[in-house]
Amino acid sequence: xxxxxxxxxxxxxxxxxxxxxxxxxxxxxxxxxxxxxxxxxxxxxxxxxxxxxxxxxxxxxxxxxxxxxxxxxxxxxxxxxxxxxxxxxxxxxxxxxxxxxxxxxxxxxxxxxxxxxxxxxxxxxxxxxxxxxxxxxxxxxxxxxxxxxxxxxxxxxxxxxxxxxxxxxxxxxxxxxxxxxxxxxxxxxxxxxxxxxxxxxxxxxxxxxxxxxxxxxxxxxxxxxxxxxxxxxxxxxxxxxxxxxxxxxxxxxxxxxxxxxxxxxxxxxxxxxxxxxxxxxxxxxxxxxxxxxxxxxxxxxxxxxxxxxxxxxxxxxxxxxxxxxxxxxxxxxxxxxxxxxxxxxxxxxxxxxxxxxxxxxxxxxxxxxxxxxxxxxxxxxxxxxxxxxxxxxxxxxxxxxxxxxxxxxxxxxxxxxxxxxxxxxxxxxxxxxxxxxxxxxxxxxxxxxxxxxxxxxxxxxxxxxxxxxxxxxxxxxxxxxxxxxxxxxxxxxxxxxxxxxxxxxxxxxxxxxxxxxxxxxxxxxxxxxxxxxxxxxxxxxxxxxxxxxxxxxxxxxxxxxxxxxxxxxxxxxxxxxxxxxxxxxxxxxxxxxxxxxxxxxxxxxxxxxxxxxxxxxxxxxxxxxxxxxxxxxxxxxxxxxxxxxxxxxxxxxxxxxxxxxxxxxxxxxxxxxxxxxxxxxxxxxxxxxxxxxxxxxxxxxxxxxxxxxxxxxxxxxxxxxxxxxxxxxxxxxxxxxxxxxxxxxxxxxxxxxxxxxxxxxxxxxxxxxxxxxxxxxxxxxxxxxxxxxxxxxxxxxxxxxxxxxxxxxxxxxxxxxxxxxxxxxxxxxxxxxxxxxxxxxxxxxxxxxxxxxxxxxxxxxxxxxxxxxxxxxxxxxxxxxxxxxxxxxxxxxxxxxxxxxxxxxxxxxxxxxxxxxxxxxxxxxxxxxxxxxxxxxxxxxxxxxxxxxxxxxxxxxxxxxxxxxxxxxxxxxxxxxxxxxxxxxxxxxxxxxxxxxxxxxxxxxxxxxxxxxxxxxxxxxxxxxxxxxxxxxxxxxxxxxxxxxxxxxxxxxxxxxxxxxxxxxxxxxxxxxxxxxxxxxxxxxxxxxxxxxxxxxxxxxxxxxxxxxxxxxxxxxxx
Length: 1119
Prior knowledge:
Mean pLDDT: 88
Number of domains: 4
CATH superfamily of the largest domain: YVTN repeat-like/Quinoprotein amine dehydrogenase
Low-confidence stretches: 1-33, 234-239
CATH class of the largest domain: Mainly Beta
């Protein structure tokens, strides 16, 4: 391995190591030698810059400080950490020198010892590393990270029994260190204790998704506290004492004048429902109380609007929604993803879908969209049932079968329940609960019926559901209201349920996978009987979800604590009245209670003084109206893991109450006395993971999903003489489990040959250096790579028979040689625009494809047609005509294909027509294929052309950027020289994520020199190839694959062993690859796990041996 290669690998590790060093409160083993206030401020800036990944800026701060304070150990260790993070040549040596200088003057500096130990361990020097970690644990036996890396050093020395003891020491101190379970699993396997090893793996896997679970590894925020960049000033402690006073204030009228109307509903004995939504788009939450009014010939529903600058709410009796009779509830959400909120009204009789249009106009569209229903609909929910990016509708009926209305994203809905086992028994149903019950990232369903048994369904995706096992006790229990949430923040949802007598039960999944109920005591603060309802929300701002409920014994609020509940407040006053309908409206001061009782005007219980601060989070999957998206615009169905200090809160954007009805409003998060939220990690409904930092208390923070490319295929970089240059991606044709429609997957082609741009790759010390990286949330199974040099005679050029083949002729990957190539004299698109210049040369300035279909990534609103006219007849040249194209494609995801299939929106790959001598266009090649990913060259051989043909046209509705178009005429050259170059080495490394650079026309571009050590990604769960040399896995096509994932790469070095090209000849290089790739899209087949490992048939014993030896690294969950 070259020195530069080793330096890049080690620097990359240290970048990952030291990123956690950016935490603001690191340990300080040496007290600062009197830095003045300006030095403290400068050091703080350095720590903050580390937190922003600006390592160069942090290095400048710490370097300046080190000149002024050359003997300050904390500053010097910070300088060493920043140096390592910069990841430039020589930084590792410099950092080790700095740490050595600290230890020479202060041998007991535990930070310097610890960081040096980490470096030694990564350099493959476990003896030296063990010595450093032993010194640290001797001085501080409570340093669990040091115990963990001590164990790793012992594992490298094959001292497995001692390593097991160290791993167990870690788990005794913190049972949530998941990497210690995995380490113990490995140690037990080496010791031959198979049963104990499997039990340890079971615990490891059981912690999946628990936000308390943490790992220790060479990654940002995962290195232990002594690897943190330390501040040199003490931080003030934050008081967590709850402010004095009540959680809610005394009740007061909702508005100054709500006397108009008769508040006597609901009519016909229906169930009233109160929901919140900013449905006039003015930034203030409005209210809708279904069936609250009884005005003959007039309003049945109370539409209460809040206007800026006006006190309270005003009643709009003429609003379109107020006049709809027999309404049981409202479901609020953007059902057509146009940026305007719509509403679905569940009724006693045909339901109604109302779309909001420009100018705050409302239009009823139920009949035209097929979204009606003729039953007494008791409850419903809006959520993305099939994870295709829109909102679907689930309805439970009191007098008929239940229904799931699938949103086709073309203005229509498709009923699914009867065909997919969701209709129920036909008996009366009461409410619906949506939650991820089995922790597999999709939405499962609980249907609460009027009488047991209830129904629980697990979502197997693509419209397939099955009854959930282990729910017998719950299904047989008496339930009148139920809500789902994760009050104990362990990553697993609980169900809280009230029965008709008001008894409260918490249901949790047991170790045996069955769901078991625990009765909870509660304290009523109002004895007035009311509707049985339940809500789960943090009421006092301590970061723990509380319960607010009502029933036959009154209404109450309490915090669940073990097997009981603790009463939160008791406010005297009008709450002694029963509440027919109530709900929690979220504000910057936390939840506000709004309630209504028949015969009375609505009342509000505002936030009391006995609360901690809150933040408001408003989520949306849409960046801006008219853009493409992958998650619903209303932000419904996302999971949030909120971190404040040392505490987690797990929230979600399904409804937080038992219904009926569904509000659309921001999420509140209590801060427990802190001034800001440290970070919130969001799992969007499409599987994207996103983190937002430092959100201030009392403010509304609008968060839109980052529209980034989550998957494609591995990305290639080559050494160009001065750095690693982005080339393109590879093996997109080998994508596994790529969904085309329900149960239909594209077959992978496990090979691709790639013609490297001429003159780009340059040797370094007699070797060609290439990197195949994974900068996205996916996995690569690489079987083989080969680098071949071709020397061409003067006047000859070469291309490859390569493309993403859709229809015949199939690509072969073989080289094609030509002397003649003709560019079009003129190129016109379907819009009459001359794009000749855009397709004349491969300059990354492509012909514009036209308006995009914003519903579906990678699809156009209408067909893009390019008509190419040539100066001469294309049959006038010798050789086989071949269409040669440079360009790139915007791939749809599996999710997108499923959504498009529902809407009947086909993706049509490029087809080719020819203009005949009779003046008519006729098909030449149907859906021949396209460039298989990021910028590259593709070809397709043309069948015989009509005599004198000078015009051809390409048509497609895919988002393809044609950069260069020409016709080459291939023929056998008199001779060529072919030189396969030996693979000297292949090494799997952890390097982070090269930065994607914004470019026009959705063109991908990556900067290897700017890499983020971590990114908001998940690992596909399973065993990966260990880091280090992998040459014997990738030097031949045999089915023995190197498996690597997000933030990792294989670095290749090929010997530049070919003799010089003959005088006047030119040389080109082809990279030949064999392998597969797979992403985590929710519709990708087996997208959750590394297994099954692809192969060419039955793996040989040698392949199995290699996999057993190399696949030792178990990964799952978030980075």
